[in-house]
């Protein structure tokens, strides 16, 4: 399996799959940011907006979400 970790908007991530013969899976990082914005704003619009921008993946590929990891207050950067 070839996994792409490209932080791209949904329409820019589709070319990573080629004709279904290149990348097999890609992270949906903008969805994670949209979820955080929706929680912060107490509004579903950011999630609806990013889902409407997401085009279907090729039948040989898929996308996945990785929930953001909150930083501890005492964590060193």
Explained architecture:
By secondary structure, this protein is of the alpha/beta class. Helix content is 34%, strand content 10%. It is built from three helices and three strands, in the order βαβααβ. The protein has a three-stranded parallel β-sheet, with no helix packed on it. Strand 1 (3-4), helix 1 and strand 2 form a beta-alpha-beta unit. Helix 2 packs antiparallel against helix 3 (45-53). It is flat. The mean pLDDT is 79.
Offer a concise description of the structure.
With 77 residues, this protein is α/β, with parallel strands linked by helices.
Layout of secondary structure:
Elements (H helix, E strand, L loop, with lengths): L2 E2 L5 H4 L11 E3 L1 H13 L3 H9 L8 E3 L13
Parallel strand pairs: 1-2, 2-3
The low-confidence runs, each spanning 5 or more residues with pLDDT under 50, are none
The SS-based structural class is alpha/beta
Mean pLDDT over all positions: 79
**Oligomeric state of the chains in view:** single chain
- Main beta-sheet strand count, sense and barrel state: 3 strands, parallel
* Coarse morphology: flat
Tally the beta strands.
3
Radius of gyration: 14 Å
* Order of helix and strand elements from N to C terminus: EHEHHE
Q: Which band does the percent of strand residues land in?
A: 5-15%
Distance between the termini: 32 Å
Put simply, the count of helices is 3
For the largest beta sheet, what order do the strands appear in spatially? Answer: 1-2-3
Q: Helix coverage percent of residues?
A: 25-40%
């Amino acid at each position: 399996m070839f996994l792409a970790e490209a932080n791209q908007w949904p329409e820019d991530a589709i070319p990573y799959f080629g004709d279904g013969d290149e990348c097999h899976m890609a992270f949906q990082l903008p969805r994670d940011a949209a979820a955080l914005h929706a929680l912060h704003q107490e509004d579903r619009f950011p999630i609806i907006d990013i889902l409407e921008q997401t085009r279907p993946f090729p039948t040989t590929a898929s996308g996945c979400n990785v929930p953001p990891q909150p930083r501890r207050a005492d964590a060193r950067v």
